[in-house]
């Protein structure tokens, strides 16, 4: 097999890249090691920056998102038993966010890929990258018991944090930066109308909690927990009890419903530099991870491949390598802004492990500053809605 761009991984990064290249008339082959059913059922992020919504719409995959996505003009921060609204729209000159599940985006992108008639292989095995330091890279893999060799011009490593692309780069050619947090998020999907119109980020003495949603009928809720916590120790009743305690304020109650799904995600910050080695380009979680408190992971993945698609188009169509050469530096500038914002939101909102009273007072002071100073609120808002 031969293609222009071999894309490893059919998550938001890989599938969006495939669609952007298709719009430009550029060939690609996407390979994914999980099944279509698995990829379409995985519950992950839910908040889209306006710029990401616009990009997906321009790429021709925004139809259902426009119909079903929930446009939000603000978020609420809760601490010391009180709620404070951050008016994202007013503070950013009119920008909003859209709540639309990553799962739905992935479904829309897979549908678009199948409609395009271009190749997408699920359940591949034994994926290996070859010749990334040469001008003739190859991807080797197995599919339905047959061995395949895919010759290409470039490889896009969109296979997430645990993929094989990043480890295919010689260790001495990469610098990595990591921060592990001493907590995780226990997330549930519940069949109940969201109890609030907007997201609520709650700093509470029992730990952080977040109320978000997927649709007018489905709520998504998160609780700070230990990273190594066993989900078996969290029967539904215990989860609801904790959510009530951390989210409720006088005059407002949290509605309960059947729990459809639950899981625990550890939290980490991670960046690999540079995001390119020879003919291999990393995008999304393959290159960087943020803790979910800033709602940036999915947005960064889509922004990376926006730049990559532009750069590949300029190279493959006009022979210009300028954008390809700038790819890693351009992405990393945005990535580090999101790394800082996500770390800042995380440390401001979570219960700190050791309960250091000095740190607790600093957190309170920071939260009061954010909700009382127009400048501080604007800083949070412009980071949250994303930079263009
Ligand atoms: P992924 O979505 O990870 O896609 C990579 C794809 O590559 C996967 O489909 C994988 O199966 C495939 N793959 C892996 N290895 C191979 C291989 N060897 N060969 C072929 N294919 C391979 N962000 C938020 O903002 N809010 C959240 O609530 C949130 N929750 C999350 C929960 C979890 C459990 C995880 C892991 C992430 C969460 N994120 C969240 C982050 C966000 O979902 C990611 O940033 C986003 O999925 C990144 O997209 P991606 O395409 O780069 O990577
Ligand atoms: C979500 O809807 O899953 C979500 C929203 C905001 C976050 C993280 C996750 O910060």
Strands in their spatial order, largest beta sheet: 6-5-14-15-16-13-17-20
Shape: globular
Alpha plus pi helix count: 11
Mean pLDDT: 97
- Please estimate the helix content: 25-40%
Find the structural class using helix and strand composition.
alpha+beta
Strand fraction band? 25-35%
List segments where confidence is low: pLDDT < 50 over at least 5 consecutive residues: none
How would you characterize the largest beta sheet?
8 strands, mixed
Each distinct ligand: flavin-adenine dinucleotide, P-hydroxybenzoic acid
Radius of gyration: 21 Å
Total strands: the figure is: 20
N- to C-terminal distance: 37 Å
């Amino acid at each position: 097999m031969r293609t222009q761009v071999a894309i490893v991984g059919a998550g938001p990064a890989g599938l969006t890249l495939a669609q952007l290249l298709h719009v430009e008339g550029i060939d690609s082959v996407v390979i994914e090691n999980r099944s279509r059913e698995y990829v379409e059922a995985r519950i992950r992020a839910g908040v889209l920056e306006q710029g990401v919504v616009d990009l997906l719409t321009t790429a021709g995959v925004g139809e259902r998102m426009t119909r079903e996505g929930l446009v939000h003009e603000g978020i609420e921060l809760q601490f010391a038993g009180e709620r404070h609204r951050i008016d994202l729209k007013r503070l950013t000159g009119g920008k909003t966010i859209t709540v639309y599940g990553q799962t739905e985006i992935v479904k829309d992108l897979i549908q678009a890929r199948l409609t395009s008639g271009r190749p997408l292989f699920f359940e591949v095995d034994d994926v290996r990258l070859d010749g990334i330091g040469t001008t003739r890279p190859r991807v080797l893999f197995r599919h339905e018991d047959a061995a395949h060799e895919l010759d290409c011009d470039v490889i896009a490593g969109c296979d997430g944090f645990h993929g094989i692309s990043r480890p295919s780069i010689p260790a001495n050619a990469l610098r990595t930066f990591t921060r592990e947090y001493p907590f995780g998020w226990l997330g549930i999907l519940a069949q109940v109308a969201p109890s609030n119109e907007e997201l609520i980020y709650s700093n509470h003495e029992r730990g952080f909690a977040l109320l978000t949603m997927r649709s007018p009928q489905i709520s998504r809720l998160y609780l700070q927990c230990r990273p190594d916590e066993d989900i078996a120790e969290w029967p539904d009743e215990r989860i609801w009890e904790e959510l009530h305690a951390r989210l409720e304020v006088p005059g407002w109650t949290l509605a309960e419903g059947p729990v459809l799904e639950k899981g625990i995600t550890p939290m980490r910050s991670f960046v690999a530099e540079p995001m390119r080695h020879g003919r291999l380009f990393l995008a999304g979680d393959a290159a960087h991870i943020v803790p979910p408190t800033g709602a940036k992971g999915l947005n960064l993945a889509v922004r990376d491949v926006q730049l990559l698609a532009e750069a590949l188009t300029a190279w493959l169509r006009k022979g210009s390598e300028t954008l390809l050469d700038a790819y890693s530096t351009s992405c990393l500038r945005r990535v580090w802004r999101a790394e800082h914002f996500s770390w800042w939101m995380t440390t401001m909102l979570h219960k700190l492990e050791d309960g250091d009273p000095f740190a607790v007072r600093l957190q309170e002071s920071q939260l009061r500053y954010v909700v009382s100073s127009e400048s501080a609120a604007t800083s949070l808002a412009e980071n949250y809605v994303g930079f263009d």
